[in-house]
Design a protein that fits this description.
This protein is an alpha+beta fold. It is built from nine helices and 13 strands. The strands form three sheets. It has a five-stranded antiparallel beta sheet with strand order 11-10-9-12-13. The two termini are 17 Å apart.
């Protein structure tokens, strides 16, 4: 039996237990944050491999040192995927379609902000460069509104300990369908379409994050979207990746990626998903 350290206690952990046990992989929870960790003794059990690198990089480094295991998605992979600008820059250079985007590194003067807004064209999406679950993402429909959002970000970034002061100015695709494709070891193994309930749309909601109330329904992606998701994972060199696709009538773009994606219910993935995931875990352990 292979022992797998899992750094999340959310739905993903519960959904992994039985399918992986049936494939010879026993999982245990490694609690790395919101606790006191003694550094002169080892508070963790023995494991063969980890899934995936802890979400908090500083605390994760301690767990990494104490566990001394290979990771499905290691520290470098998590940092790469979390940096939205890095992802879009890498994909764009590889001719993978992405939204029109400008990175602003604060503090930036008003002329630079105006130029960024005018390059993307209104309305624009303004999003922090390294947050998840739609936190801090907003839209601006005119220049004054955009400069006001930038002012608020200046106030936040004025705190000197703020690690990432950059944000993105991105084109807004209001009518795009929103998909999350899951790629495991280079192969697209399933996808969901994220939709807001009608009542939420009528109230003016537009973010499709499940943690913000959207519903995720399993779908069968057309071949060109599967290929796009797989190509994204290959360019970024990430073995276990959630790829967020925005699809309009005339184009499809990679909006973001997530190297710590939640595993949905099994009905939303293709047959063989758990075999593929178990295979990747074993490959990582043997590497």
């Amino acid at each position: 039996m292979l022992d797998l350290a899992v750094t999340t206690r959310s739905e993903t952990f519960e959904r992994m237990v039985d399918p992986l046990a049936a494939r010879g992989i026993a999982i245990g929870h490694v609690d790395t944050s919101e606790r006191a960790v003694p550094l002169t003794a080892d508070p963790f059990e023995e494991y063969d491999v980890g899934f995936v690198y802890p979400p908090r990089i500083m605390e994760g480094a301690v767990a990494d040192a104490m566990l001394d295991v290979p990771w499905v998605n290691d520290r470098e992979t998590i940092l790469r995927s979390r940096n939205k600008a890095d992802v879009l820059a890498r994909l764009g250079r590889a001719d993978v379609p992405v939204p029109e985007t400008v990175m602003v590194s604060n503090p930036a003067d008003e002329a630079a902000l105006v130029a960024a807004f005018e390059q993307v064209r209104s309305p624009v999406v303004v999003k922090p460069n390294s947050t998840t679950r739609g936190v801090g993402v907003t839209t601006a429909h005119d220049l004054d509104s955009f400069l006001g959002v930038a002012d608020y970000l200046d106030l936040v970034h004025d705190y000197r300990a703020t690690g990432d002061r950059s944000f993105l100015v991105q084109e807004y695709l209001p009518d795009a369908r929103d998909y999350r494709a899951m790629v495991v070891d280079g192969e697209c193994v399933g996808a969901v379409e994220r939709r807001l309930p009608t009542a939420a749309r009528e109230r003016g909601r537009w973010k499709h994050n499940v943690h913000r109330g959207a519903d995720a329904e399993g779908v069968e992606l057309p071949e060109e979207l599967r290929t796009l998701a797989e190509r994204t994972a290959a360019v970024l060199d990430v073995q276990y990746l959630g790829v967020d696709l925005l699809v309009t009538e005339d184009r499809a773009v990679v909006n973001e990626t997530n190297a710590r994606p939640t595993i949905d219910s099994a009905t939303k993935y293709e047959d063989g998903f758990w075999d593929d995931l178990a295979g990747l875990i074993r490959e990582t352990a043997d590497a």
